[in-house]
Each structure stands twice: as structure tokens, then as C-alpha cells.
From TrEMBL:
Occurrences of domain Glucose-methanol-choline oxidoreductase N-terminal (ranges): 77-100, 244-258
Cofactor(s) this protein requires: FAD
InterPro entries for this protein: FAD/NAD-bd_sf, GMC_OxRdtase, GMC_OxRdtase_N, GMC_OxRtase_C
Name recorded for this polypeptide: GMC family oxidoreductase
Key words, A-Z: FAD, Flavoprotein
Organism: Nonomuraea insulae
Family: Belongs to the GMC oxidoreductase family.
Listed PANTHER family: CHOLINE DEHYDROGENASE, MITOCHONDRIAL (PTHR11552:SF147), GLUCOSE-METHANOL-CHOLINE GMC OXIDOREDUCTASE (PTHR11552)
Length: 494
């Protein structure tokens, strides 16, 4: 019997495990479906910051992007460290305008101290940055960027955008190098940053790998533990789901928490009729790829540069477009042996999708419908983002670094044809949120309260990107770390 069972040792789960087990009087059990590596035993594929979406540590999900596109591979990390162990290492905070939509306790003034507390970085303004936190973050400098990545920044400035030296500081509107959780080319995933050897030796902490949780067990409406796929019961006074925006809602649904009609159709008894999985959001992208020119074939580091700006339809204060420059496309796919991708992304989509169960079987992947470009406004803004990236690519500050456009290709010139290509070939940016969103008592979409407690039951909490009220305009990993830290401070810290 544990005081707390944490399901999922990914970004949020690792943070909460480290924090909750600080109290020697509290017994903590972490259940991770993937492999649990010792801090000094992560394989090279997970340490290499230039390698993403490792198939050996992935859930193997697919999703629907648009009606015109084939099923999309949808990477999610399955290992201690979760997606922070397989992502592109971008350490970009959500903006104040994003948090203005989150409600009580989640304003930027509330969360800035938390961002500072989790971070250690040697640069930037002390008002915005932490020096001694567990997560190492480093701002990419010009001399670290490849010539083409720097050329992208310089071309963006030539096109009239501001030069941003610190996206996690006062200014985000413009172009610059990314902040990354990378030190000496090594990815600093949360399994390394938070679950250090000293933490793992705590006598009140147990970490078990290879445990795929089927569902939460209840006595009436009180959570009493979890049932694993192999039939093992783990009893606990409290259960915290940290399975991510896909894993946590799937467990909730199998546990009888979700839309009553959907549960009844699958023969699942209803514990709480809540809109789980009904407000999925993810940011659609498109890979605008180029062959690097001979003499400019450098591709390390792979990540990268960013232009973060506003579309012509963005409300005042919002930045809804990203154009990212990376070398994450293998050079073997380019006729010159080198490639750069200017990925356009709609960072603040208004479209929402769904996550549903395929069956009651925990081995069956959930049915993920991202519903990319589900509104005319989303389609227009996505087209605007791709056209923006192509304009930067033609700028004299960038054009010498590339020889040809690989996708969509020079033959695609008019807006109608380009919009069709985008709709048929969307890319997964990989920042899903809001499948069990937080909200107040009167919010009809809320599944949890503002600190993650599931409505209508006791002893059960969700603490990961599933509870974001909507997708922020940034990448999500560092904001998930902040969320876990902030919930710990608000609920559990003395």
C-alpha cells in the first residue's frame, strides 16, 4: 500500500516523483510502462540531442490529421523520461498571453517563479531565469548554429522581423536561436534531471518499469489504486495520472470516467460522466524542406532556429505562427546529402479533435483525431505560415545556403495548390493537450479542477498536458514541467 501512486514516468511524472518523495514519511510508487534506465545507462539514441522519435522507445500511435491525409505517425516516448527523452529538446515557455486563459492560480505572475525554480541556465536576465534548478537549459548562440540555421535568422530579420536573443525573456515576437535542454550535445531529459541517483535511492520511493496500467480502481467514487495490464493490483491512498495527453485520458476512459454514452457502448461502467477526450488540441505543421547547397552541408546541431510571430488574423497580443528551422530531416533524403526543414506550424489552432477508446483492451492504442485545419480560419493561417517560410527561404540572406525546394517544390506556386498540398500532407508538431482540461465548477468542458483533481471522484488527480485548458502558443515540454512543479507546491508542499 502506497501513499501515492504515480502512473507514468514521463515529463510530469518524473517531476512529481522527485518532489513528492522528498518527504520521507510519504511512500511513493512510480509505475512506468516503458524501460527504466539507471541515470548513467540511457542508450545513445536517447542521449543524442540530434535524434528524435526513437522507435525502440515509442508507443507506436497513429492519428488522423485531416480527411485528405493518410494516418500520421504520432510519436510519444515510452521510457522513464517520456517524450522528454525523444523530443527535439526545445525548452520554450508558454507566453503570458497563453496563461491569461488558464484561470485562477495560473497567471504568468504565478508561474514565472516556478519556471525560474526548475531551471538552471548561465545566461539571460535574472528577473526571468533561474540558476540552480534541476533542468539545464541553454540558449543557442549564433556561433552554435549551423550557417543555414543562422542564415534563416538573418533572413527573417531582413524580412522585417525583430532579432530575439532570449525567447524565455521579455520578447518572443521575432527570430533567433532556440533555448534547449541540451548540455554538451546531451539531451537532459527529466529522467536524468529530476530522477538522479540520489533521488532513486530514497527508501520511501519505488520505481517499477514495464507496468502498463489498465485502469484506476474505485470503491464507489474513491480511488483505491490501479490495475495493471497483467492483472496486478497496486493499492494506494491517492492516484496521480501522468500518462500525457493521450495516455491519461485513455486510462480515465477505461476506468469509467468519460462521456457516459461512449463508455456504455464499450460496456464500461460509468463512475463519472465527464467530457474526457472531447477537447484535444494539437498544433498542425507542414514540412517545407530544402536541399542544402554544397559547401554548406553542416547539420549539427539539428535544432535550431525559430521565427515566432502573429498571423494577419491574430488578436492583439497573440503569436499564433511558428516557422522553425532544423536539420531533423535526414541528409540522405536530399540530393546534396544535406537538408534543412522550415517547418511552418499553427501554434494557436481553434480546431479541436477527439481521443476515444478503440476497445477496453489496454493494449489497443486510442483513436486520436487531431482534426487539423478544422476551420477556415485555421486553414488560412496555416497557409500564411507556409508562405512566410517560403518568403524567408527566397531572401538573399538565406537563399545561398540551399539549392532547391524539396517540398512542396517549385512547381507549387498558387495559393489554391499550396493549400491543397498542406491539407494532404500535414505534419505532427507533437504538442497535444487538453484531453482532460482544467476549469472551474461552471465550465462544461472541465474534467479536473485547477490543481488537477478529477471532478466527481476523490483520490484521483491528473497532472500533465491533458489538463491544459487549451494548447499554448509554444512547444509544451517545459510548461508541463512547470505545471507539475506548481501543482506540487499548491497541493503537497508544506
Amino acid at each position: 500500500m502506497s501513499d501515492v501512486i504515480i502512473v507514468g514516468g514521463g515529463t510530469a511524472g518524473a517531476v512529481l516523483t522527485a518532489r513528492l518523495s522528498q518527504d520521507p514519511a510519504r511512500s511513493v510508487l512510480l509505475l512506468e510502462a516503458g524501460h527504466v534506465y539507471a541515470p548513467d545507462a540511457y542508450p545513445p539514441s536517447l542521449l543524442d540531442a540530434d535524434t528524435v522519435a526513437d522507435p525502440a522507445h515509442d508507443w507506436g500511435y497513429t492519428s488522423r490529421g485531416t480527411a485528405q491525409a493518410p494516418p500520421l505517425a504520432t510519436p510519444r516516448g515510452k521510457v522513464l523520461g517520456g517524450s522528454s527523452a525523444v523530443n527535439a529538446c526545445v525548452a520554450l515557455r508558454a507566453r503570458p498571453a497563453d496563461f491569461a486563459k488558464w484561470g485562477e492560480g495560473w497567471t504568468f505572475e504565478d508561474v514565472l517563479p516556478v519556471f525560474k525554480r526548475l531551471e538552471n541556465t548561465p545566461t539571460g536576465d535574472d528577473a526571468y531565469h533561474g540558476r540552480s534548478g534541476p533542468l539545464s537549459i541553454r540558449q543557442r548562440t549564433d556561433d552554435e548554429l549551423t550557417p543555414s540555421l543562422l542564415g534563416f535568422v538573418e533572413a527573417s530579420v531582413a524580412q522585417g522581423y525583430k532579432r530575439v536573443l532570449d525567447f524565455n525573456g521579455t520578447e518572443q515576437n521575432g527570430a533567433g536561436g532556440y533555448p534547449v535542454n541540451v548540455v554538451d550535445r546531451v539531451r537532459q531529459n527529466v529522467g536524468l534531471a529530476y530522477l538522479i541517483a540520489e533521488v532513486r535511492r530514497r527508501p520511501n520511493l519505488t520505481i517499477r518499469g514495464g507496468v502498463n496500467v489498465d485502469r484506476v480502481l474505485f470503491d464507489g467514487t474513491t480511488a483505491t489504486g490501479v490495475l495493471a495490464e497483467d492483472g496486478t493490483v497496486y493499492a494506494g491512498d491517492e492516484v496521480i495520472l501522468c500518462g500525457g495527453a493521450y495516455g491519461s485520458p485513455a486510462i480515465l476512459l477505461r476506468s469509467g470516467i468519460g462521456p457516459a454514452a461512449d463508455l456504455t457502448e464499450l460496456g464500461i461502467g460509468v463512475v463519472a460522466d465527464l467530457p474526457v477526450g472531447r477537447r484535444l488540441q494539437d498544433q498542425p505543421g507542414y514540412y517545407n524542406a530544402y536541399a542544402l547547397a554544397p559547401g554548406h552541408l553542416e547539420m549539427t546541431p539539428a535544432v535550431g532556429s525559430l521565427l515566432w510571430t502573429s498571423s494577419s488574423e491574430a488578436p492583439a497580443g497573440e503569436q499564433d505562427l511558428h516557422v522553425t528551422a532544423t536539420h531533423l530531416m535526414p541528409g540522405s533524403l536530399s540530393p546534396t546529402g544535406g537538408a534543412i526543414v522550415l517547418m511552418a506550424a499553427l501554434a494557436l489552432p481553434e480546431s479541436t479533435g477527439t481521443l476515444k477508446l478503440a476497445s477496453r483492451d489496454p493494449q489497443d492504442a486510442p483513436l486520436i483525431d487531431s482534426n487539423y485545419l478544422g476551420t477556415g480560419r485555421d486553414t488560412r493561417r496555416m497557409l500564411e505560415a507556409v508562405k512566410l517560410g517560403r518568403a524567408i527561404a527566397r531572401d538573399p540572406a538565406f537563399a545561398p545556403f540551399v539549392t532547391q525546394e524539396l517540398s512542396p517544390g517549385d512547381a507549387v506556386t498558387d495559393d489554391e495548390a499550396l493549400a491543397q498540398v498542406i491539407t494532404e500532407n500535414p505534419a505532427v508538431y507533437g504538442h497535444p493537450t487538453s484531453t482532460a482540461p482544467m476549469g472551474g465548477p461552471s465550465d462544461p468542458w472541465a474534467v479536473v479542477n485547477p490543481v488537477g483533481a478529477v471532478k466527481g471522484v476523490s483520490g484521483l488527480r491528473v497532472a500533465d498536458a491533458a489538463i491544459f485548458p487549451e494548447v499554448p502558443s509554444s512547444t509544451t515540454n517545459v510548461t508541463v514541467i512547470m505545471l507539475a512543479e506548481h501543482i506540487y507546491q499548491r497541493v503537497y508542499a508544506d
